[in-house]
Write a structure and sequence with these properties.
Blueprint: H1 2-20, H2 57-90, H3 101-118, E1 119-128, E2 132-135, H4 136-149, E3 163-164, E4 168-173, E5 177-178, E6 183-191, E7 195-207, E8 210-217, E9 229-231, E10 236-243, E11 252-259, E12 271-276, E13 279-285, H5 300-313, E14 316-317, E15 321-328, H6 330-334, H7 336-368, E16 370-371, E17 374-375, H8 381-392, H9 408-428, H10 430-443
Antiparallel strand pairs: 1-15, 2-13, 2-14, 3-13, 4-12, 4-13, 5-12, 6-11, 6-12, 7-10, 7-11, 8-9, 8-10, 16-17
Helix pairs in contact: 1-9, 2-5, 2-7, 2-8, 3-10, 4-5, 7-10, 8-9
Length: 451
């Protein structure tokens, strides 16, 4: 791969320079082509987040997107390693080498042993995976900025633009929104006829599938300084039930209420969280094409490609929702210190585990287009960037771009740097993907014996 990357610059340089000699550092009218920008300055670097490498926003959008993917994956890996080492310290596991699948297997085994010593039977896990979405507004803004800098007259308000979303839409939908509990109602405090995502206020005692804060008619796993329940309640809870996952609420719901389409609560002000047969605003879990910001713009198609790359590379994933149900072993119930220590370890495990799952979802989505094995982006943001960088290595790809001759060397060095980044992402991320998958599978299934 390295031979290809370094050969790429040598191959492109003479042809690209020959093609661009007719283009000066400034345009005929003396302008630089970039509002407020000096396109004759030093070359930018992808790794540093520079966005003026070529002087043409249609090309630099890809460099920016690639830099975002590189930075995101590096940050996620560092956080993953830190969280695994943090949990290893909690469970007394010595990890001296790299964080890989073998290291995670050691940690998983220690957690399983801790469960066996303190819990009777298996742990029941109620789990809802993260949602990973590309922002429609990021794409629209990038598209509009690109068209403006390409000389088109953009007339668009990013906050009012919608797109056709091929996956799940989160936000506004101007047509039919389908799926179970796909209608999202903001619930400052309402009686929710579907599932409540947030907190359930219980004026009368009822089962709490989360953290009970108030009075527990039964055994409570933890108490606050005033002696009120502040943990799981095995009886009826009166007060506030903080829901770990969306669940039915027999009181009033604070947060979000998820109902099916056609219910009385699914009014015109509700948002969609499902498949939208029309146009979507907000976030899209799947493919979409940014709309042109101008009525007529020759650069629209090129801008759409780079704007979509920027949006997909900046995708965000929501935290997963997780609830663990278990029964303490007899010795753990009898020994208050043992119970307290086990509960503290479990609290640390849940906090770090949720962060790991959220980061792993974004890492996997960026690189493979999948979230826990389910295809969300096809092709993946990384695969699209890889294809675009390969195309950019072809001199003929620049025929329609306005690149100053002073930036020719910058384009060549940018493509070479991009090649190194793409090669690194393709070869260095597999171990982290494997290690993340090992932990996520065990964590979301209650650390079974074979984890």
């Amino acid at each position: 791969m390295k031979k290809y990357v370094y050969g790429l610059g040598a191959l492109v340089a003479p042809s690209l320079i020959g093609m661009l000699v007719a283009t000066g550092c400034t345009k005929e009218d003396g302008s630089s082509g970039l509002p407020g920008g000096d396109i004759c300055g030093p070359c930018g670097e992808i790794a540093k987040g520079d966005v003026g490498i070529s002087g043409d926003v249609r090309i630099d959008g890809f460099f920016k997107a690639l830099g975002n993917v590189q930075n995101a994956t590096s940050t996620i890996k560092a956080d993953f390693d830190a969280n695994i080492r943090g949990l290893a310290a909690v469970y007394g596991v010595e990890l001296d080498g790299a964080i890989n699948a073998a290291a995670v297997a050691q940690l998983n085994a220690a957690i399983r042993a801790d469960f066996d010593a303190n819990i009777t039977g298996a742990i029941t896990v109620d789990y809802q995976p993260p949602r990973c979405e590309a922002s429609v507004n990021v794409a629209v803004q990038a598209q509009a900025q690109c068209e403006v800098k390409a000389g088109c007259e953009a007339d668009i308000n990013a906050g009012e633009v919608s797109v056709a979303c091929e996956g799940q839409c989160t936000g506004g939908c101007d047509a039919e929104c389908t799926g179970d509990f796909s209608c999202e109602v903001e619930a400052p405090s309402v009686v929710c006829t579907g599932q409540c995502e947030g907190a359930c206020n219980l004026e009368a005692g009822a089962t709490c599938n989360g953290t009970c804060r108030g009075t527990c008619e039964g055994e409570c796993s933890a108490q606050d300084g005033s002696g009120n329940c502040a943990g799981t309640c095995d009886g009826d809870c009166t007060g506030t039930c903080e829901l770990a996952v969306a669940a039915e609420c027999s009181g009033s719901c604070t947060g979000k209420c998820l109902v099916n389409q056609g219910s009385a609560q699914c009014n015109a002000e509700a948002s969609c969280r499902g498949s939208c047969s029309g146009s979507c605003t907000g976030g899209c879990e799947g493919n979409f094409t940014p709309p042109s910001a101008s009525v007529e713009c020759e650069a629209a198609a090129d801008c759409q490609a780079s704007a979509k790359a920027e949006a997909n590379a900046s995708l965000e994933c929501s935290p997963p929702q997780l609830k663990l149900d278990y029964t303490l072993a007899g010795n753990a119930n009898a020994n208050l210190t043992q119970k307290t220590q086990f509960t503290a370890r479990l609290t640390e495990l849940k906090a770090r585990g949720i962060a790991i799952v959220q980061g792993a979802a974004k890492y996997e989505a960026l690189l493979t287009g999948k979230v826990e094995g389910r295809t969300v982006f096809e092709p993946s943001p990384f695969a699209e960037l890889q294809a675009s960088i390969t195309l950019m290595a072809t001199p003929s790809a620049y025929a329609d771009f306005d690149i100053p001759v002073a930036k020719t060397a910058c384009v060549v060095s940018g493509i070479t740097e991009a090649g190194r980044i793409v090669s690194g992402l393709a070869t260095s991320t597999s171990a982290t993907l494997e290690a993340q998958a090992s932990f996520v599978t065990a964590f979301t299934s209650g650390f079974p014996e074979d984890s």
